[in-house]
User: Fold this.
Amino acid sequence: DTGVSQNPRHKITKRGQNVTFRCDPISEHNRLYWYRQTLGQGPEFLTYFQNEAQLEKSRLLSDRFSAERPKGSFSTLEIQRTEQGDSAMYLCASSLASRGHPEAFFGQGTRLTVV
Amino acid sequence: AQSVAQPEDQVNVAEGNPLTVKCTYSVSGNPYLFWYVQYPNRGLQFLLKYITGDNLVKGSYGFEAEFNKSQTSFHLKKPSALVSDSALYFCAVSPSNDYKLSFGAGTTVTVRA
Assistant:
């Protein structure tokens, strides 16, 4: 499968615990995005990278959230001290940074449940 | 800031009938517009996009969308719906100088046999 891969697919954690999600983008894509989707809503932008540089972060991304893309390949999203409000689907997407505004391709997401 | 409105939470059509899913947008400058579809337990799948050029854009699975600048709309259409088109559809917009997407809340399409 050459699409965007996200792991784990599901994560249940207790409030206050830390969690980390991984995203492997399509191999030649240099842009990588994280979105969050709650029930009944469309995805909301969290942050994006071009290569290893984190270029933008949404105000939704509180200090408890951190994202990295250390070698410009895979990315991790960590949530510290999880809260029940963090329960959502976390989506990763990737695209090429090139002219013509190429579309982003999404992974299947990681569903986080904080209990 | 950009935004998208999908005024219908649900659209129900009979198989073989035309399908329309509505989308209006607000963005500074020229818009880049996208439609994605989400099937249960599947990721968002790209259907089509409008960047520039012809206002009628053709995409995957027989879908098309018409860009209307004066009405700031980008409605998704399919001439003859299939039961397999039943899914959740999202419209998204980004300004021409940015790559992040702003999504609508989604429209659930149900096509009955």
User: Anything to note?
Assistant: The interface with chain A takes residues 4, 32, 34, 36, 41-46, 49, 51, 90, 92, 94, 96, 99-106 of chain B (CB under 8 Å). The mean pLDDT of chain B is 94. The first strand of chain B starts at residue 3 and ends at 5.
